[in-house]
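User: I'm putting together a teaching handout on how sequence relates to shape, and I'd like one worked example. Could you take Lipase domain-containing protein from Oikopleura dioica, show the sequence you're using, and then write out its predicted structure as tokens right after it?

Assistant: Happy to. First the sequence, then the structure tokens directly below it.
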Amino acid sequence: MALLSSSSTDDETMEEDKMKKNLLSIRKFLKKHKRIIVISLSLLLFIGVFLAVFFISFLNYHCLNLEAHDENVIASLKFYDPRNQTLLDFPDEFNDSFNCSIGTVIGIHGYGDSYDTDWLAFSSTLLFNATENEGWCLFSMDWDDIAKYSYISSAKEVRSLGYWLSKTIEENPKVFDSSSLQIVGHSLGAHIAGFAGKEYFSATGTKLSKITGVDPAGPLFQTCGDKHRLSVSDADHVLTVITNSGYLFKNGMVPLATTWKHEFDSKRRC
């Protein structure tokens, strides 16, 4: 037993000596290369601060870019013909035979999508089936070309697109009655809708009836103030819907089509 105890003590002593040697080696290394280590850590800190300042400056620059608009932005409107479920050009193919007496809905697709996106087509079917094709007009904003840019480039155009939509609404008051007009925008389209509401109120002193933002785009907009993104003051009623992204383009829009049906039913009973 005494022999085993002595052997165990020797092993522990050897381990302690080994640890002391390692610590001594580390201290010598740190002392020898102290200047290089300090410079390296300082450089890493400087790079981190620089990147943080650059990122914040970039976000602020993006917000400032949203202060102005380009009047030459390219966009157009399509409208759904409930009789044959097709999309037609507005205003060329629109006439008095289309009944918009209950209300008008403008759908705005998101980044990378197109005006004939699945969720708008799906919603049009629900809407017109629920309302028996009576009293509702459904439009789709076509900004496909810009939506195919890089995300940053597309995001820079949302105010210009909102301005264009606002002017289109102003120029066609018989079709787009602000008291019953609803705009539904997905992703970047939600912010386009917000800017349309801002511009319309600035030009007319009247707010649009309702704006619904479906999964409003976050990147580049989260750090901007309310005047640079969709906000609660952009219409009389502003609703944000966060959908199930696993089945975004259909199930996510069902509550909106249901809302339109309820509004139609309530107005028809009055």
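A couple of points you could highlight for students: Residues 34-65 form the longest helix (32 residues). The chain has two domains: 12-66, 73-260.
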